[in-house]
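During the reporting period the student researcher (J.K.) took over the structure-prediction task from the postdoctoral fellow and processed the backlog of single-chain submissions. One of the processed entries is reproduced below for the supervisory committee.
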Amino acid sequence: MKFLSALAAGVLFGGGLLLSGMTNPANVVAFLDVTGHWKPALLFTMAAAVAVAAPAYLLAHGRERSLLGVVIGWPDRFSITWGLVVGSAIFGLGWGLSGVCPGPALVLLARPQLPAAMFCAGMVAGLLAAGAKPVSAANAETPAAGDRTGSEGRAL
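J.K. obtained the following structure tokens:
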């Protein structure tokens, strides 16, 4: 059931990216070009995403597990580290220069093109360099009673 819900969410997300045109790097770059021919399509896409995600977030907020029993790792909103700042800057520069971020890049892999493959290879290299670990059932252990920690062991 978890696999099917993840698959459905991924297909829905990818379909939304295709429908909104956000898999076209030119649309993203046009949104970021506020002094030239600005196109607000990404703004409307973000607003629609927030409208859909907000009720789900409110439903999940304060829970330790999802409706399917998966542990929810809430991030610490108040811990700003140099790694977070540098990583955000690198992400923003890459997004602005390429017009692609991870979601659309994975959708673009369905059409085998060198730029999408290069972007995803760079994304995987960055994840490995940062020490990212894949999410698995083994990582989703139940927290001890009273222990409210996020996915990286940070207190909530």
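The committee noted the following: The first helix runs from residue 2 to 20.
J.K. will present the remaining backlog at the next meeting.
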